[in-house]
Amino acid sequence: MVRRSNNNSAVVEAESLSKSFNGKKVLENISFKVTKGETFVVIGPSGVGKTTLLRLIDLLDYPNGGRLLFKHVDTALLNNGERLALRRRIGMVFQSTVLFDTTVYSNVSYGLRIRGVPKDLEKIRVAKALRTVGLESFQLRYAKTLSGGEAQRVAIARILSYEPELMLLDEPTANLDPTNTSTVEKAILRAKSDYKATIVIATHNMFQARRLGDRISLLLNGEFVEVSDPETMFTNPREPLTRAFIRGEMVY
User: Fold this and answer.
1) Within a domain: residue 2?
2) Cβ-contact 153, 135 below 8 angstroms
3) By CB count within 10 A, which of 82, 102, 168, 249 is most buried?
4) Which residues of 127-139 are buried (b: 16+ CB within 10 A; e: fewer)?
5) Within a 10 A sphere around the Cβ of 53, how many other Cβ atoms?
6) Which of 44, 50, 43, 40 lies closest to 214 in space, CA to CA?
7) Are strands 73-74 and 65-70 parallel, antiparallel or unpaired?
């Protein structure tokens, strides 16, 4: 029988999660929960395990220890078919944008087609997703003609179109200039507003975390040092390591 959490508002929960590669521990004793409609941001320098954590949440990898629950269901007890079905309820945008060499419409509608969504509903959902990211007039544009910021917004629209219960964004603006960064951040905020989206973001950009996050966690040396609201994290952090990281000191 699938074990269930007692927290009815949690979309995803981790309990003492750990992950190692070739004997090297990347994540250790990670515990958190993300509630419906919340934006939970994981900050930390490159290489500390932020992407690994997102891949665990997206069920692309398996943890070595601990439990990961999605909507109260223990994912360790799912078979391959059940894992695939659950993954189709999650949307992930990777740091390096990958689009098909076809139109924006075809890119955004891809997830709907593989889910068997009727054509008339597909058109409505694609139009709404593109409107949310500010690209409503781009349906017939080809992916190869897009700027980096436009391509990333198309990637966000692609997962919005199938209305996932959880959005995962891995360094969504890492390769963008400040103008495009601002545009993508506005698209993320509109996604939260238009879709009541639950979002987990991994970023090394502390300013972005403060602008977008409802709660922020600092990941260092494979562990969460502190989890708090943005005001506490950036003006009155509890942990000395957090204070040092916010000041820009080398703490890893």
Assistant:
1) no
2) yes
3) 168
4) bbbbebbbbeebb
5) 29
6) 40
7) antiparallel
Q: How many structural domains is the chain composed of? A: 1
Amino acid at 216: I
| Domain CATH number, residue 37 | 3.40.50.300
What's at 223, amino acid-wise? E
**Percent of the chain residues topping a pLDDT of 90:** 86
| pLDDT, tens digit (0-9, with 9 covering 90-100), for 188-230 | 999 999 999 999 999 999 999 999 999 999 999 899 999 999 9
**Orientation angle between helical segments 148-160 and 178-195, nearest 10 degrees:** 10
| Residue given tokens 């890893």 in the structure block | 252
Instruction: For residue range 140-163, list pLDDT tens digits in order.
Output: 999 999 999 999 999 999 999 999
DSSP assigned state of 100: -
Rounded Cα distance between 129 and 95, Å, is 20
Which two tokens mark 59? 């069920």
Q: Which residue has the tokens 């562990």?
A: 223
Distance CA 236, CA 21 (A): 35
